[in-house]
Amino acid sequence: MTTQVFHIDPGNIDDAAIAIAAQTLAAGQLVAFPTETVYGLGANALDPAAVDRIFAAKQRPFTDPLIVHLANAKQIDQVAVNVPDVIAALAERFWPGPLTLVLRRAAAVAPNVAAGRDTVAVRVPAHPVAHALLAACALPIAAPSANLFSRPSPTTAQHVLDDLSGRIDIVLDGGPTTIGLESTVVDLTTHPPLLLRPGGVGVDALRKLLPNLLAPDAPLVVAETEAAPSPGALLKHYSPQAPVVLLRGDAEAARRCIHTIAPVLHERGKRLGLLAPDEEFNNYADLRAEVVSLGPTHDLAVIGRYLFARLRELDSLGVDVIVARAVGEGDAAGELSMAIRDRLFRAAEGRVLDADDPHVLELLLTLT
Predict the structure, then answer these.
(1) pLDDT digit string, tens, across residues 5-51
(2) In 269-352, where does DSSP find H-type helix?
């Protein structure tokens, strides 16, 4: 299969390219397109065979559900039943935007969209290209991230092609995404509502309309063999090819730790990748390691926007293991802090150690 690429200026939509992509979706084929969060891989959510193609292209387990994207909130009745009254206020406040709501699934929605569960996750994306495509095809579109399963999500069209070229029909290149982290997912079928995945909409903002929203401190983790209630719930997710260890602690403790482990790894012929905030860059200038910017700790929006791209960059440098510094810790970290911690936790497959833990080096050696 040859993957067609259409370059589309979000400020000047190419109607002809959008029409071709819409026809491709209506024919049961796959189209990757930008949203404000990450690039999505779309198929007709009402067509089980088309949805199956998503799972095949991504090599994604059928137990991991998909999000259905709508052109506007009026389409909810096509995909959901027993819709709670609070939807109107949530849609007015957060849609279009990075909020996904889990509702009761309508019979018309392909069961494989929802891993066989009786729920469906829906959102209205804000990106102009996504909106134009959804409006043109007039279909609810199931669309997980447009990458190989468990890899860092794509925030550029090139990321999509790196993973899926030749496996999908069309990529709409609308430039880099603006948020870079997947949407927040809230389950409205439970009482009280439950945060399933942190993302671009923070808990504080949600609680203005959902005051009893439950937001567990620990990340939701389900086994790959279990039908997940939300995408992004597996332990290994957003992971580069090189194994990742997440290192907590203050800058000085991290400096001592990394200066201890880096020479040992180098002596053993292993290339260390380090994902560090800008403020700590000078601490590692003397090391034989590939040091990549995580961004400034005072600007979590920048860190979130480029997080997946930085993980992919470290892979491209051929490192054998990655140490990522934990950021966004503490009560004053901001609305995106929970989402960033969640993505790094899953990229590291739960391998989180304190910088003063004597077992850091031992773990890194076992991973390489």
Answers:
(1) 999 999 999 999 999 999 999 999 999 999 999 999 999 999 999 99
(2) 300-316, 337-347
